[in-house]
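Weekly puzzle thread! Below is a chain. First person to post its structure in token form gets bragging rights.
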Amino acid sequence: MKWLDPLRPYWLLIRTGLWLALVIGAALYGRGCGRAERAAEVETLKADHAIAIAASAVALAKLATDYRERERALGADFIAATETHHEELSRVQAERDSLVARLVAGTDRLQDRWAGCLSAAAQASGRAGAFDAAARDRAESAGRVVAAAAQCDAHVRALQSLLIAERAR
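Winning reply:
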């Protein structure tokens, strides 16, 4: 092997070059293999992402449908509560008118503290018409007070029914 003798001083350089070429080739081959694996992984991730988006769209559509249904039911409950409230207010007005009529007719009486005073002199002097106007005014005022309290009660009942309907949904 005399023909290798002139290469002997360069043998370390040749061997290092061969090892370097082998390492670079392996790295390039591995890089190419890694690309294929990464490409497959990217495709898998894209498919998973598309499935997740489709599932989100379905869930969002269901949520919107459920919300619309809840809103319709709550609207129906609100309408029913409002109609009941208006019926109660009409009943309150009728009760007020009935109370005023009974007070004026004398079938009901106000408590003594609301009755006012009528002196014997006023009765004798013929001011009974003024007394009747004052009595009617007191009767109407009593009717307004009773009606205002009943309206407040009706408002509270209506608001409570709306709140109960909303929380029940």
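Puzzle host: Confirmed. Bonus trivia for everyone else. The chain has a mean pLDDT of 81.
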